[in-house]
From TrEMBL:
InterPro entries: TVP23-like (IPR008564)
Protein name as catalogued: Golgi apparatus membrane protein TVP23 homolog
Record's GO cellular component terms: Golgi membrane
Biological process, per Gene Ontology: protein secretion; vesicle-mediated transport
Gene for this chain: Tvp23b
Membrane-protein topology: Multi-pass membrane protein
Family: Belongs to the TVP23 family.
Protein species of origin: Ciconia maguari
PANTHER family: GOLGI APPARATUS MEMBRANE PROTEIN TVP23, GOLGI APPARATUS MEMBRANE PROTEIN TVP23 HOMOLOG B
Length: 202
């Protein structure tokens, strides 16, 4: 732990610096590339398709294929490699469906297998792109582009599902989410109460 005090040489300090630099490096460049490639490509095709071709069907099929590839890659590959999280659905012997949300356990040395750079890339792509599809959905709705609304809703649903799944993996179950929110609100209420009491006392 950080509280332990021990004598170390200057070479150990150099090793510590090299470990930190390795931590910030991208360990899975192919996974990082494809984590952003499919989702950014779908957005670019959506924005430029009317300029590139007049065929709505070709654009729709291309966007849905890119979104489907993105959903599969993020759910099955990049989440596991880049941040050590995964989620899936399994059916038990009774035929009941269960959603499973997992996070990789920290090793005995307390070292994380994912780097900070990969984690930033993963979460930035995972959060930003669904927000862009939500903006596209409102834009298509208010501009009465009904034919594009179905395509945009596919983007919202597929990328939103991955976002929800990985947030559940990171934070925990819905019970944990509720308890976190309750604890936060309780702390805020306590702080305001103490501050008001201090003001009245002074």
């Amino acid at each position: 732990s950080n509280d332990d005090i021990e004598d170390v040489s200057l070479f150990d300090a150099d090793d510590d610096v090299s470990r930190r630099s390795k931590k910030s490096k991208i360990r899975h460049p192919v996974a990082s590339f494809f984590h952003l490639f499919f989702r950014v490509s779908a957005i670019v095709v959506y924005l430029l398709c009317e300029l590139l071709t007049s065929s709505f069907i070709a654009c729709m099929v291309t966007i849905i294929l890119l979104l489907s590839c993105d959903f599969w890659a993020v759910k099955n590959v990049t989440g596991r490699l880049m941040v050590g999280l995964r989620w899936w659905n399994q059916v038990d012997d009774d035929g009941r469906s269960h959603w499973v949300f997992e996070a990789r356990k920290v090793s005995a040395q307390g070292s994380k297998t994912s780097s900070e750079a990969e984690s930033r890339i993963f979460w930035l792509g995972l959060i930003t792109c669904p927000m862009i599809w939500v903006i596209f959905a409102f834009s298509a709705l208010f501009s009465f582009k009904v034919k594009w609304l179905a395509v945009v809703m596919m983007g919202v649903v597929l990328q939103g599902a991955n976002l929800y799944g990985y947030i559940r993996c990171k934070v925990g179950s819905r019970k944990n989410l509720t308890s976190m929110a309750t604890n936060y609100l309780g702390k805020q209420f306590l702080r305001q109460t103490v501050a008001k009491e201090d003001q009245t006392a002074s």
